[in-house]
Queue: 4 jobs
Job 1
Amino acid sequence: MNASHSAAADNGARTGNETGADTATGPRIVVMGVSGCGKTTIGALVADALNVPFVDGDSLHPVSNIAKMAAGTPLTDTDRWPWLAVVGTALADSDGPGLVLACSALKRS
């Protein structure tokens, strides 16, 4: 046993991964806000700074939602739930360096 290993073992030194967390997976960051507030711009800048992929949640909408939004028709909860499931799956399935996702998952009450 070398001296540095022995000293660390004897004094209870931490290695930095005592939580058992998977260190191969980086941060998952969601940038949320109302339409036109800069989610895509900020999200892309954060992803670039962290050197992780960026996903704009709008790109995950089904064609039917995109058509409604283009026509100026607000999405209903029924429209949103399948899209939110896809957004959640994108976050849950991300691995590697991490992920930044811009998402307007907001509605007026």
Job 2
Amino acid sequence: MLLQIYYQPVGILLQLAELCNAFLKSMKINLKQRNVADLKQGEKGIIANMRPNSLYLKLLEMGCLPGTEVSLKLTGDPLCITVGGHDLSLRMDEAQSLALVE
């Protein structure tokens, strides 16, 4: 009885981990994919996709659309990027949500 009570939460955690992995695969998110934060100063890349987060809609409205060229102007935190002829300041975690075409 005691072992059964102990193993139930462990089983639930394993199921949750499997669901999270299935979700990431369904969203086609590659956790090792290069992102805007990996760019070097002056380097350019093309946005492939974005990880869903609280700024998803705002980044889209600011021109960070898949297929758009982005270049890194200044490094540090925040980063300064150029998208569609406009300069944007992004925090490091925001820049990491923008995946690049490999």
Job 3
Amino acid sequence: MAVGIFDSGLGGLTVLNAAKSRLPDVEFLYYADSARAPYGVRDAEDIYQLTKAAVEDMWSKGSDLVILACNTASAAALRPDAGRGAACGQARSWRICATD
């Protein structure tokens, strides 16, 4: 199993390091979209499309699970059609898990 971790920059490295320390036998792929950061200045549709493209790229590179370590990207993924695998162009679906 390979786990992808996505962030619009480098902040997700904290999530990556924590996950690696707890799951040392798991392969990780880190995707930082630094070229388009910061995401906070973009509209929701743009953020959604960038996030969707990043997740699809991570799936194509072998990730079985992708963690959105970017709060802005996570919020944009909370749209009505985000959970439909067809919207992602693959037989996959999004699951959103949050902490308070």
Job 4
Amino acid sequence: MSNPTYAKVQEGAKLAREKQVSMILALAGIEALADFIKEIGLPCSLQELGIKDKSILKEIAYSCNISMGSYKKMTHKEILEIFEECF
């Protein structure tokens, strides 16, 4: 399947807004991104990245630098929760 043109994407977005299918469209976009990531051979989980022991996630999360200039200031606990979801 070839990539859609900009006009075709805009046409689809307009239709989605008119029919109020934003959640369906969002989920389809997430699925398409996941398929693309797999297609080009990137890891989709921390296990695929080579992390086999879930117990190390806390150590990694708490070693992360918390940046004050971020969009949302995250805590180490929130980072750990993300890592656990990605495991």
